[in-house]
Amino acid sequence: LANHSDMLEQTEKSSTELSQVLASVKVAKEFRLAIANDQLLLEYQPLVSLDNRKILGIEALMRWQHPVHGRMAPDSFIPMAEDTGLIVDATWWVFEHALAALRRIQDQTGNREIFVSVNVSAQDFNDPAMLDRLLLILEKHELEARHLHLEITERLLLRQSDQVRGLLNRCRQSGMSIAIDDFGTGYSALSYLHTYPVSTLKIDKSFVGQMLDDKQALGLVRSILSLGDNMSLNVFAEGVETEEQAKTLQSLDCKIAQGFYFARPMPENQLLTTIMEQH
Ligand code: C2E
Ligand code: MG
Ligand code: MG
Ligand code: MG
C-alpha cells in the first residue's frame, strides 16, 4: 500500500511537471504572438535632475497586455523571454517604439536633449549586426546616438565575452551611453568597470529604499557615488520614493534620479503633458 501511494505521488508529481512545461510552452507561444500583434506596450518613467527636478530623460519599460490575464509586469515574463530567446525580437520591438516615441516627444516639447534608456539582455548581443541595425533606427528618426542609453546588468559583463566587449565598445564609440542597471546587486567584481566602456552606474532601488534607516545601505550609496566620481562615471539613483531620499542623494552630490516620488512609469501622452507642465 505504501508503495502504491508512493507511485501515485510519483505520477502526480510528473504530471504537475508536465503541465508546467506545457504551460510555459503556451506562454512562450503567446508571447511570440504578442510581439507580432502589438500586445506589448511601453511606459516611460522620467529621470530627473536632482538640482531643478526637470526631466532629462526617460526609461522605456515593457508591459504585456495579455488578452486573458490583463496587464503583465515585466518581471513576470522577461525571464521566460530570455530563456526562450524571444527577448531578442522583443528588444527590437522596444527599440523601434521607444525611439519613435522619443522623436515625437522631442518634437512636441521642443526639448532636443531628452534621452531614452532601454533595457537590453545578454542575448541581444549575440547579433554582430546589432549596432548597425540600431544606427539605422536612430537615423530613421533623425536621432543622435547620444540620445540612446543602453541599460545592461553586471551579469552580462561578468561573462567576459569578446563579442559583448566588441559590440559595447562600438556602441559607446558611436555615442551611446552604457549604464549598469541595479548596480551593487550583482557579483560586483569591480575590475570589469575599467575594462568595459561604461558611462553610468544606476544605484539599485533597494539601497535607495533602505538608506535612511540602514547605515550599511547609506554607506553603499556613498561608496557607489564616490566610485563614480573617482572613475568619471555618471551615477543615477533609482527608486526614489520620498523628498527626504531625494534631498539625501542631492547632498551626496548625486545629479540624476528616478522614482515614484518624481513620477511613475506612464504612457506617452501622459508623459508629454508632464513634460509640458514643467516649463
Ligand atoms: P529596471 O530596469 O531596474 O527598472 C526599474 C523598475 O523599478 C521598474 O519596474 C520601475 O517601475 C520600478 N521603479 C521605479 N521607481 C520606483 C520606485 O520609486 N519604487 C519602486 N518600488 N519601484 C520603482 P518594472 O517596470 O516593473 O520593470 C522591472 C524590470 O523589468 C526592470 O527593472 C528591467 O530589469 C525589466 N524590464 C523592463 N522593461 C524591459 C525591457 O524592455 N527589456 C528588458 N530586457 N527588461 C525590461
Ligand atoms: Mg533599467
Ligand atoms: Mg533597476
Ligand atoms: Mg533591472
Task: Please provide a brief summary of the model.
The protein contains ten helices and nine strands. It has helices at 2-36, 78-84, 87-109, 130-140, 154-158, 162-173, 205-210, 215-230, 243-251, 268-277, and strands at 40-49, 55-66, 70-72, 115-119, 148-152, 177-183, 200-203, 234-237, 256-257. Helix 9 links the parallel strand 8 (234-237) and strand 9 (256-257).
Task: Give a quick set of tags describing it.
alpha/beta, binds ligand C2E, cyclic-guanylate-specific phosphodiesterase activity, eight-stranded mixed β-barrel, 279 residues, 10 helices, binds magnesium ion, single chain, 48% helix
What's the topology here?
Layout: H1 2-36, E1 40-49, E2 55-66, E3 70-72, H2 78-84, H3 87-109, E4 115-119, H4 130-140, E5 148-152, H5 154-158, H6 162-173, E6 177-183, E7 200-203, H7 205-210, H8 215-230, E8 234-237, H9 243-251, E9 256-257, H10 268-277
Parallel strand pairs: 2-4, 4-5, 5-6, 6-7, 7-8, 8-9
Antiparallel strand pairs: 1-2, 1-9, 2-3
Helix pairs in contact: 3-10
This protein binds ligand C2E and magnesium ion (3 copies).
Given helix and strand content, the structural type is alpha/beta
What's the overall average pLDDT, rounded? 92
Order of helices and strands: HEEEHHEHEHHEEHHEHEH
Proportion of helical residues: 40-55%
Largest sheet: 8 strands, mixed, barrel
Give the DSSP E fraction (strand runs of 2 or more residues).
15-25%
| Bound ligands, named by name, code or SMILES | ligand C2E, magnesium ion
Number of strands: 9
Radius of gyration: 21 Å
Shape: globular
Query: Total number of helical segments?
Result: 10
Query: What's the end-to-end separation, in Å?
Result: 77 Å
Give me the side-by-side strand order of the main sheet.
1-2-4-5-6-7-8-9
Low-confidence stretches: none
GO molecular function, one term: cyclic-guanylate-specific phosphodiesterase activity
